[in-house]
Amino acid sequence: MVSFNELKKALVRDVTTEMSSPNQPLSDSQYNKGFDVLMNGTERTSYEQFIIPELSQQLTSLLASRPTFSVIEIGPGSKSVLGHVPLHLRRRIRRYAAFEPNKISATSLEDWISSCSPFPCLETAPNIHRAPFIFDDEKNNIIETDPSNDGQTFDLILFCHSMYGMKPKEKFVKKALNMLVSSPESGKLVIFHRDQCFELAGLISDHTAIFPTGTVSVADRNDVLDAFSPFVAGFIKQHVEVDMALRIKWRETCRALSYHDKKLPGYLLFSSPQRMLSLTRHANALVDLVLQVPLAKEDRVVKSWEARLHRPTSIFRPTTVKHVQQCIQWAVKHKLKLTIIGGGHSAHCLWTDTVSLDMEAFDRVHVITSNNDVHDANTRLVPNSLILAEAGCKTGDIIREAMKFGLTVPLGSRPSVGAGLWLQGGIGHLSRLHGLACDNIVGAVIVSVISGQIFHIGEVPTQNLPAGATRPKNEKDLLWAIKGAGTNFGVVISVTFKAYWAPNYSVWNWIFPVREETEAGLKLGDVNSIARNLTRSFSIDAYIYSDENQLHLGVTMFQASADKSFEMPPLVSSILGPVKQCKEVDGFGLFETEMYMSTMLGGHSGKSSSFKRCLFFNNIEDVQIVDILRAAIQNRTTPFCYLHLLQCGGAARDNTTKDSAFGCRDFEFACVITGVWPRTQTETEVVRTTIQLVYDVVRNLLSFCSGIYSADLGPDPRDNTLAAKAFGVNLPRLAQLKHTMDPFNTVAYACPLFEPPVEQKLIILVTGDSAAGKDFCAEIWASVITTCSSQMRTARSVSISDSTKREYATETGADINRLLSDRSYKEEHRPALTKFYKEQVINRPQLPMEHFQSVVNDSGSFDVLFITGMRDEAPLTAFSHLVPDSRVLDVRVNASQTVLRDRRWKRHDEIKPKNDLDGTNLSNLHYLPSLVFNNDKLGSGAAENFAKKHLLPLLHEDFARLGKMVRAVPNHPRQGVNFRHVLDICQQPGGLTLCTDLLQRHFIGEWAKVDTLVCCECGGFVFASALGARTGITLALVRKSGKLPPPTISVEKSQSHISSTESGELQQNMIEMDPSLVSKSKSVLVVDDVLATGRTLGAVLKLLMKAGVRRRDIRVMVVAEFPIHRGRESLRQEGFGEVRIQSLLAFGGV
Fold it and tell me: Using CB atoms within 10 A of its CB, is residue 776 exposed (0-12), middle (13-18) or buried (19+)?
């Protein structure tokens, strides 16, 4: 996909010498028309998923040091992007100013602020300057840059896509930096820009974020392209005829360079990566460090092609530990970030507008030999022998030096890889024998990124201790952490390894062409069978690749032996047949035996670049996994892409998550998904599509894998979901330790360690008629959630009917694979399937609940689970009590009879409502699902928009914030009750405002159609009053009988389970209300604090019906729900299934 910037260059090149007419800047209306085209397409997604979340984070960080803030925005357009950040942040803006040279936009901005009040707590009127922001005209400058003048300095200065045309950019940035307040702490300059590295002449960013998946979509119409192209190019031609000819040429260029997506028919797509950087008054602090620490050579080149694309402010080359300390102390003083260069393979060892430390000078390997010369043949461990490697060493350096003493360390498979490998795992051909590289770390020297203090942890030879080194109080925790996540907690100076006797190796190779689709699975099954029977001195690898459009499977087997007693197991030769190639090598020669380097596709010979992500699997012959792997190679973007499966297990599995931070132990194979392209094609469309292919394959495999390898992961937001699975149960502990050891996030661009949110799982039950598209929609919705970088969520779709289909296939001999994937075949078996299931339910009435619990439990770790194939009339009410700690919703997928007919390939009169395995026709049932989606349109666009509008908001962090405000009180009001103090929300700062925001934002319906808010004492009064004040809707109070003046109506109400006596006896009370407040209401909303048994809510609903309100005109919103009491089911049984009930939170317990 061609990028936005590449498109701009192409449009400018279209101006030929024959077009003699001079360029003319766009008028205000022309500019706005082009901008509207941009914002009406997928550019809006970049705002929703990147700009708004990142800006919100920057504001939250800013407000940690001040109660309110002032802001000046450069080029906001007709509406400020600040109007889209959460309300609780907008309430903290006390002063707003802007530079907007576009007169039309400036007028619209003023009108928007005055009419919509997006900043409700401003202390002064907004100051909109209808002029450009300039840096070199102090005489005519509108705003002075005197930091002592509070009225002319700001806490936040914002450029949101408004630096285009500003040259040289660093001068505008320096001007803006001088306008930042200096106390209580420096303000922030925040810049959003299309992802291109513009030089800032030595200025340093305190934080940078990227959004590489941004796109721009444009309707493929001449009038739209005629508005879009000049906006991109930045000019038109003065002469009308020349301008018209150029626009025609621009249309052709746009169409020729665009990407076409089947999901967006009629649109042209362009890649539009985005970048955010923030700077403070410390941005010019580089000079302080230059005077203390030597710089690296200007021609310093790192291995990673990705890292080479970044433009660091400077690279320093410390030669002593003192230099490292000075770098850290400088960074902490100025609240700036550092990156670390070890072997230079990491994509994030360099980062734009950031300072890097090159550890190249720390390149010594020390071998501490044993005083005991006895060879322990059982353990292969050399007693008392250690190998100490400094942080600038490469794998090859360590192996070469160790071999001089007949020793080795289990490291990786490439000689040029550095410390990042063994600090984050280290998978190699000795992993089955001795464990991962990180498992063999017994000590380290590390410089703290809090103070620059030198720590030594574990076993470090005395002669290798730097002066002043001390043991930290949390030594055990720190040693545990660097064994698998060691790039995150400080600057590592050296690592001490256990040493083993160095073996020799025998290497056998086989290559098999794969001609049939099923053959790939059979061959991988062979590899899997061999792997299960190999002793630990053996390991087997498999490669899936394509050569001359023919799928191939390459197999390599390794045997390690101290005395060269090599022998191929008979099972291997019987399964794999004659060997294609065999050789014997030592530990260093082993580096050259990797098939992808030496044999496959003729070897890459160092003339290619690659992008990799690695997942862990237990069973590589699983049909679904094999299908995804085969499709990955068939859909490869270049001929060189391949998959590499490395056998692990053995000793790597012996270690537990308590022994090291490496959190994934339950796996037998590591699967490296590798996209490869010629080195000459860097920064081209091929590179972008290949990288996305790798991420797409990983996403497809994510629900089947047991973990992710963290060594490749970094600041790319596509890695966030992967990082959440990289450390397993260790992630919370690591996140806490990161906060302790790196409180300023100085080492910010390593594999992300974020505290997993304490949030409830979201389970969405997808229902609908057969052929309505339930499975299709569920897959689309799961994909939207997984790929939303601002959410960092895992989601998957499963079918609850699959277990029945498997049982049916076992009993009848039907083809289970076709039942699961072939719709026509499934339709043939539908009557028999339905009969089979009904007979099962007769014999096992609890079967539906068993299936539900099974599908939830078998789905593993997830944030959002979509369950299709529901057969129940009201699945939410039937099953939510089985998962009381999760939020459960149901979504009904509808389609017209015509669409159903077309999808089923049947005549219209053959379509009949049915109750079967794939859905229930609800047209005659008195039940209202949580949401309804009409799936009549072709393509996935409508489903994607539905997910973005209705499902993604359910994952907003505000729900977690609200949930944390509801504390648990054990044994209150009596023994055995775990009381949730929902009303405590109102007693916490910002709690009632937050709750009111959520109630208002997440109401499913139109507020304009709600006539009355109904609330019952006492909890409902609190939340409904605040909501009524916010929306301007009047309240109708429900109270105990005798509390309200006449006229009133009343009904009987049982006590809630909390208020009932300890014996469980229910006392009856009467509740009442003034009927005139609701009798004429066309729509009422009941607001309450809690839904548990439904007794209180049921009484309120009966009271409303007594007042003349119809069931279908009633909606309910509660703050917290306790599904275990089955309140929804009780209300449905009482006839209130048509009443839509929403809850913000769900809690287990009583």
Answer: middle
Number of residues assigned to the chain: 1150
Is 335's pLDDT higher than 50? yes
- Percentage of the chain beyond pLDDT 90 is 64
Domains of the chain: 4-275 (3.40.50.150), 285-361 (3.30.43.10), 365-501 (3.30.465.10), 504-728 (3.40.462.20), 762-955 (3.40.50.300), 960-1146 (3.40.50.2020)
pLDDT tier at 921 (50, 70, 90 boundaries)? Answer: very low
**Mean pLDDT on 769-781:** 90
Cβ(341)–Cβ(358) under 8 Å? yes
pLDDT for 1059 equals 58
Strand 127-129, strand 93-99: pairing: parallel
Cβ–Cβ under 8 Å, residues 780 and 947: yes
- pTM above threshold 0.90: no
Q: How far apart are CA 374 and CA 385, in angstroms?
A: 12
Residue 601 has pLDDT above 60, yes or no: no
The answer to whether 122 touches 96, Cβ cutoff 8 Å, is: yes
Give how far the C-alpha of residue 210 lies from the chain's centroid of Cα atoms, to the nearest Å: 13
Question: Per-residue pLDDT tens for 435-447?
Answer: 999 999 999 999 9
Q: State the Cα–Cα distance between residues 581 and 770, nearest whole angstrom.
A: 54
DSSP-assigned states of every residue in 191-248: EEEES-----TT---SEEEEETT-EEEEES-HHHHHHHHHHHHT-EESSHHHHHHHHH
Which among 747, 665, 742 is positioned nearest to 709, based on CA atoms? Answer: 665
Whether residue 747 is predicted with pLDDT greater than 60 in this model: the reply is yes
Residue 547, strand partner residues: 550
Residue 19 identity (one-letter amino acid): M
Q: In terms of DSSP H, where are the helices of 144-195?
A: 169-177
CB proximity list for 599: less than 8 A, separation 6 or greater: 509, 511, 554, 581
Order of all β-strands in the sheet with 314-316: 314-316, 355-358, 338-341
Which two three-digit tokens encode residue 221? 């119409």
What are the two backbone dihedrals, phi and then psi, of residue 209, each rounded to the nearest 5 degrees? -135, 155
CA distances from 708 to 433, 711, 722, 1082 (A): 22, 9, 6, 54
| pLDDT, mean of residues 350-372 | 89
Res 906: pLDDT: 47
**Shortest CA distance to 703 belongs to which of 771, 617, 807, 778?**
617
% of residues, the chain, pLDDT over 70: 92
Average pLDDT over residues 580-608: 77
pLDDT at residue 141, rounded to an integer: 54
**Maximum CA pair distance of the chain?**
100
- Whether omega for the bond prior to residue 578 falls within 30 degrees of 0, making it cis, is no
Q: Which of 389, 360, 365, 362 is nearest to 302 (CA)?
A: 360
DSSP secondary structure letters along 609-634: EEEEEEEEES-TT-HHHHHHHHHHHH
Q: What is the mean pLDDT of the chain?
A: 88
CA distance 525 to 620: 7
CB under 8 Å to 498, separation ≥6 — which residues? Answer: 381, 385, 386, 409, 440, 442
- Asked if 218 and 37 count as a contact pair (C-beta separation under 8 A), the reply is yes
- Is residue 62 within 8 Å of 156, Cβ to Cβ? yes
Q: In this predicted structure, what is the pLDDT of residue 908?
A: 37
Give one word for 728, left, alpha or beta, with left for phi > 0 and alpha for psi -120 to 50: left
261: tokens are 């997506």
3-state secondary structure of 492: strand
8-state DSSP, 153: -
Tokens of 839: 């007979």
Burial of 115 (0-12, 13-18, 19+ CB in 10 A): exposed
